[in-house]
Amino acid sequence: MDERLHIIIAGEKGKILALLCNRKKLYLWSAAGGAILLFLVLASLFSFSFYTKYHNTSQLLAEINRQTRTQDSIIEDLNLKVAALETDKENLKAEFETEKELLMTNAVSELTERSELIERIVGSIGVKLPEYTKNSDKNSGGPFIAESWEETDDLLFKADKYVNAIRYLPIGRPVSGSISSRFGKRRDPLNSRTSFHEGIDFRGRLGEKIYATADGTVKKAFRNGSYGKHVLINHGNGYTTSFSHMHKILVKKGDKVKRGQVVGLVGNSGRSTGPHLHYEITLNGKPINPYKYLKVARLLKVTSKKTHFKYN
Predict the structure, then answer these.
(1) DSSP state of 136
(2) Which of 241, 227, 233 is closest to 294 using CA atoms?
(3) What pTM does this model have?
(4) Pick from 57, 150, 172, 271: CA 20 to 30 A from residue 228's CA?
(5) CATH number of the domain at 179-307, please?
(6) Coiled coil located at which positions (predicted)?
């Protein structure tokens, strides 16, 4: 069998080209051409895949770069805000220190004024306020640290001592009524004989409230002969106050009372010509005139409107 192939190619002008080709060589050329074509196809596919991956990677890198720039911008904004907050903090701290200095200066001035006021007013009735003494420095030690507000601390302790002392001074009115009989010599309202009146009588309506004039402890609360229904309060500093001719007693022996607390009601019990309160103050067992303590209360009330000081 003939293994050769004749390939005849006819031209337009009748020219004929004849090619003589071996069948085996043709197969080899066909195989080589197919291999080349396959290689080209695979190379094209690989190139397309590589391009696609490269394109996606480029997009991803671009997105990462964009996000990085955004985050850098955010971080920069945060740093600016932190810096602004630090500045505001320092400004506020400076303002606070200035305001504190002003408040402390005003406090020192007010404490000094209050202490001097209390000394003058309470001194006007001959009452000696407790002296301020610092704590003992024995059995102590440690490093020295200067205190810029030592004067203020002294004033605070001093004013506190004064206010605490006033709490136990029987100042103020036990009832709102007017005075019907003063302290000292008088004509007895029942027998018209000269006698010594150891307290002050206040007019009052039956059932009107009676108030304690200082902090203390109820020492007696009972019906006391001609004094009628009677309450005695011990203030623990040599002072006692008593309230007589009550209609009703509202405290009992041993009760702790505060200035302004209701202790009973105005009445007409005992040796009395009508509803009133007999009010006494004693110092170390001796009766003293309550009127000057009423004057102190009025002065404190007047000055408290100017200094905002509350004595009760």
Answers:
(1) P
(2) 241
(3) 0.56
(4) 172
(5) 2.70.70.10
(6) 75-102
- The type of residue at 217 is T
Token code pair at residue 48: 């397309």
Residues 6+ apart with CB under 8 A from 127: 169
Total number of residues shown for the chain = 312
Tokens of 75: 């971080």
Question: Could you tell me the two tokens for 50?
Answer: 């590589």
Instruction: Give the residue among 243, 251, 228, 240 at the shortest CA–CA distance from 288.
Output: 240
Single-letter residue type at 262: V
Q: With b meaning 16 or more CB within 10 Å and e meaning fewer, what string describes 78-106?
A: eeeeeeeeeeeeeeeeeeeeeeeeeeeee
Contact 299, 285 (CB under 8 A): no
Beta strands in 114-228 (DSSP E): 179-181, 184-187, 194-197, 200-203, 209-211, 216-223
The rounded distance, in Å, linking the Cα atoms of 130 and 168 is 12
3-state secondary structure of 121: helix
